[in-house]
## 1
Amino acid sequence: MDKHKVHNGFTIVEMLFVLLIVCMFSIPIQKPKSSLTMFMKQMMAYSITMQQKAFETKQEVNVTINKHNALFDEYSVDYPSNISCTPVSFHYNENGNISKALTLSCYEENKQMKLIYQLGSGRVRYE
């Protein structure tokens, strides 16, 4: 008598296919970052660079932020056409400390973000 093999399981190909589908659904979908968010990160990076420059060279570094452009010491940055900021001016002293605490607000259409410069710690963050 021949015994027939019973195939009650899944093949490896079927299991891999199911695993692929599960993995595709588990990948988090991130919305693209706005140009204002990217711009604020860039402004924060420029500010930190100027703070480091002041500390390394032991010289005062001036930062002037206008409505449509910014001057980081002698380096000029033009904003994208759809972004504008409130004008502020400050400097980093030879120890890398900021001259005053302030909040820089930038706008893109109906969205607003802020860069917050903290006195004492010299930190900058965006909201």
## 2
Amino acid sequence: MLVFLANFNREEFNVCVVVPRGAKLIPEISRLNIRVIEFDGIGDKSLALGAIKGLVKLYRSENPDIIHSHASLSARMAAKIAKKAIVHTRHSVYDKQSAGTEHGYKKKFPYKQIAGFLNSSLSDKIIATSPAAKINLTETGTKQGKTVMIYNAIDALEPLGDADKMAYRHKYGIGDEDFVCVMVARLEKVKGHQYVIKAAQMVQKEDPEVKFLFVGTGSQEDELKKMTELLKLENVIFTGFLENVQEALAISDVQINASYSETTNLALLEGMSLGIPAIATDTGGNPFVINDGVNGILFDLGDYADLAKAILTLKKDEEEYKHLSQRSKEIFNERFTAPVMTRKVEDVYKSL
């Protein structure tokens, strides 16, 4: 959303953003000179029945042409009542392996029919942020004609100079010659950190100059830290929350995504913009972003031995690494830049 807000055509569109009261995004949205409305009762869950009446009142007062919802079913229901055009962005993918849960029932009666009815009746257009998300929507009952695929996008990160890179490496106790693998993700089970730690154990035995940088916080933080202590790992570093993720990406050689479920992961795109190859699970939208052997390497979900092998291969094979790095930048520029995404979202608005 922030990428769109920074790049949309202000001569054609007047945008206002409704967020939960006290949302952390408010300062960032305000810095873009976008009007923000804080609203109570919509922060905890998609369906907040108590918020619908207030949202209807807000919509009728503001009188927008289009309501664009990113996660809130309540927002779409209120828009339907207020008789507004509705755009919904689908960011998630229900894989059978998502967080270790079987989601097959979502493709069968009656869930498929209920979900398909809600998506089709409460959306004039649905933006799927990857081909995997579009396929998933169809499999769970949504009419194909409602859906358009638009990749998530970012503004390319600016590369850091050598002096800044060295300073950040030293900040985290990383040596000048170390090969750094970064993972930018919430510390939650669905992100697969536990498998990366097991890979780190294998890698440490083979090459102590490979370091693993975990960026983020989450409910699994204490458990993951205890795991690294029990395995006596000296090659894993937890940075906690970083306001500027670029400092971690810019000092890294490889980016890891071990998630159970993704659509288009923005951290992968940020890494690609800097020419950082990725090693990612072959789930959800990852294979549509990372082409195996082209701009990265794909591995089977949970196969930490294969992950460890891929890391060591990229460290040793300089020619292969250079090839993946170059193609990462090229593919980013072809598919995932902010102007490309923004114009496509604007076209959806215009079509309504």
## 3
Amino acid sequence: MKRIYAEEKWCLGCHLCEYECAYANSGIADMVKALKGKDIFPRIKVEDGDGVHFAVNCRHCSDPICVKSCIAGALSRDGDGMVLIDKDKCVGCYTCVMVCPYGAIMPAEGGKVAQKCMLCTDNQMNGEPNCVKHCPNRAIVFEDRG
């Protein structure tokens, strides 16, 4: 299964991936209308520290503790191994947020449900998630590494 991988040696810490993620998941065709003057809630986040920057997103683990811990059954794995979240089932307990070892699950806009990277399955452009497509330094890649 293809996953998003961070190449921290190439990350500039520009946070463009966060804006591209928020835009791709906004449902609005115009980036300015989607993001200007608004708080953004991306499903990927850049961690900065001591001169090192890297993107954190869902790793779609082979044995995901978030799926096991979800009291509402909102998290599951599909046949390809992708970890999915059903926002209609999510009760906002944030157990998944607390147990994710990577910090890749976070509150969604409004704070009533959790959100995570879904590899832009609903809005993928040219076969790549938006964050990967628009990373100026290829610090985020979409690959199957076996």
